[in-house]
């Protein structure tokens, strides 16, 4: 489902975020990228598609292990960052496509690995995107979905999503881990294998790469501080004088498309 207003928010946010997002330590984290690649169990003959690839970090992480890796994204500024990253790393087996992931411009079964990272919480209909990912994945191929997830406590999940929407107006909804896993079943996939890590940082750094509406940054800081006292956001937060550290839980969910 492509909603014009939501797509405008995506383009606005990710055009502004392109450089700061693609250079943030939490996003370029090599260990996390290695975990994602490992979850897909790549082989030299694999053809990878990364959906909503942004600045191409996941595609470039796969490139040295597979025949070809392609990224698709709707934000041109992100694709420019991706092309630069590939050129800087001398990668010749990657390609970047501009497009909307609700309707992937590929034939059924074109890829043997289909991935996406930190995108589902920006989609109004992640189940529809996962269906497309499954369609373009060959039988026996692997699907890997990586995203941060919300507390199973509905009030905490709602508060976390309010915070994230204030911080990034293109945020749709972080699902809970159960919901994320449930999408796999709905898309005809088996129960995914799960691995976990935390996206850690301090709130000042997070806000430096975010573009909330004017004045909302102060509300965001207050929400983090309040949660350090009562866990209203349902994520680990530590306050030390002026510094607020957070850890967003991230799941790497991987399943093979049934043959
Ligand atoms: C938070 S960034 C993640 C980028 C990348 N996956 C990563 O982890 O480094 C989310 C990306 O989703 C893209 N995006 C959101 N909705 C999209 C859509 N409907 N079609 C294509 N790309 C989309 C945005 O342009 C943005 O680059």
Give me the secondary-structure topology.
Elements: H1 4-23, H2 25-28, H3 30-40, E1 47-51, H4 57-63, E2 68-73, H5 76-88, E3 94-98, E4 111-117, H6 126-135, E5 137-148, H7 154-167, H8 177-186, E6 193-202, H9 203-208, H10 216-230, E7 237-240, E8 243-256
Parallel strand pairs: 1-2, 1-4, 2-3, 4-5
Antiparallel strand pairs: 5-8, 6-8, 7-8
Helix pairs in contact: 1-5, 3-4
* Sheet of most strands: 8 strands, mixed
What is Rg? 18 Å
In DSSP terms (H or I, runs of 4 or more residues), the helix count works out at: 10
Q: CATH superfamily, called what?
A: Vaccinia Virus protein VP39
Distance between the termini: 27 Å
CATH topology: Rossmann fold
Ligand species: S-adenosylmethionine
Task: Kindly describe this structure.
The protein is α/β, with parallel strands linked by helices and about 260 residues long. It has a single domain, classed as 3-Layer(aba) Sandwich (Rossmann fold), CATH 3.40.50.150. The chain has 10 helices and 8 strands. Strands 1, 2, 3, 4, 5, 6, 7 and 8 form an 8-stranded mixed beta sheet that branches. Helix 6 (about 125-135) links the parallel strand 4 (about 110-115) and strand 5 (about 135-150). About 45% of the residues are buried. It binds S-adenosylmethionine. S-adenosylmethionine binds near residues 75 and 101.
What is shown here, in short?
Helix 3 packs across helix 4 (57-63). 42% of the residues lie in helices and 24% in strands. It has a single domain (4-151, 170-200, 247-256), classed as Rossmann fold, CATH 3.40.50.150.
Structure keywords:
Rossmann fold, eight-stranded mixed beta sheet, 8 strands, 259 residues, binds S-adenosylmethionine, alpha/beta, globular
């Amino acid at each position: 489902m492509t909603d014009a207003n939501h797509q405008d928010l995506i383009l606005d946010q990710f055009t502004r975020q392109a450089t700061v997002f693609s250079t943030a330590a939490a996003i370029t984290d090599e260990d996390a990228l290695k975990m994602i690649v490992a979850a897909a169990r790549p082989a030299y003959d694999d053809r990878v598609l990364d959906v909503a690839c942004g600045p191409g970090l996941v595609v470039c992480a796969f490139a040295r292990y597979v025949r070809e890796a392609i990224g698709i994204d709707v934000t041109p500024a992100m694709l420019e960052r991706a092309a630069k990253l590939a050129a800087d790393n001398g990668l010749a087996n990657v390609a970047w496509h501009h497009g909307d992931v609700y309707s992937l411009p590929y034939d059924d079964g074109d890829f043997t690995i289909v991935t996406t990272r930190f995108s589902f919480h920006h989609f109004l209909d992640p189940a529809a995107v996962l269906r497309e990912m499954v369609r373009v994945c060959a039988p026996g191929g692997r699907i890997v979905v990586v995203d941060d997830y919300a507390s199973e406590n509905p009030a905490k999940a709602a508060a976390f999503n309010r915070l994230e929407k204030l911080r990034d107006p293109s945020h749709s909804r972080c699902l809970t881990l159960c919901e994320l896993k449930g999408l796999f079943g709905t898309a005809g996939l088996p129960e995914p294998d799960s691995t976990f890590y935390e996206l850690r940082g301090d709130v000042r750094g997070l806000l430096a790469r975010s573009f909330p509406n004017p004045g909302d940054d102060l509300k965001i800081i207050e929400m983090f501080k309040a949660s350090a006292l009562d866990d209203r956001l349902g994520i680990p937060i530590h306050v030390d004088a002026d510094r607020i550290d957070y850890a967003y839980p991230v799941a790497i969910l991987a399943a093979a498309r049934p043959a």
